[in-house]
Hints:
Largest sheet: 5 strands, antiparallel
Shape: globular
Number of domains: 1
Number of strands: 5
Order of helices and strands: HEEEHEEH
CATH class: Alpha Beta
Bound molecules: zinc ion
Oligomer: single chain
Mean pLDDT: 95
CATH superfamily: HIT-like
Radius of gyration: 14 Å
Amino acid sequence: MDCIFCEIVAGNIPARKVYEDDHFLAFLDIRPLNLGHTLVIPKKHYRWVWDLPMGDEPDNIGQYYKVVAKVAKALKKVFDIEQVKSVVLGDEVPHAHIWLIPAFENDGHGGAINFKKVKKIDEKEMEWVASKLNEELINK
Ligand SMILES: [Zn+2]
């Protein structure tokens, strides 16, 4: 296996998980564009977001987006913000993933997302966000 996200799902590579169920996982991006930048992925390896099934499968695209929405709402609540940007590209890691990026005033992105603006965020802040999101997302 050489897919880094499959390794995270398998527990072979550590990640700051903020949500997990039988089919989906959300964790903080290690190269955050803002504090709280979260990746939501299906546990099964799909190359692209649009490869997820459309039928009654438990990991269908509708279920995926429900999890994405759940995490986005938790981010809004934790930071008390209006907007969480979402991005579907898929080039960086060949395993389906959706980015959720909290938008803050004067966050250096100029009202959009500047993909070069990777933030240096200290471990304590990352831990704080992960634990706040965990509180919001566990049993909800
Ligand atoms: Zn994978």
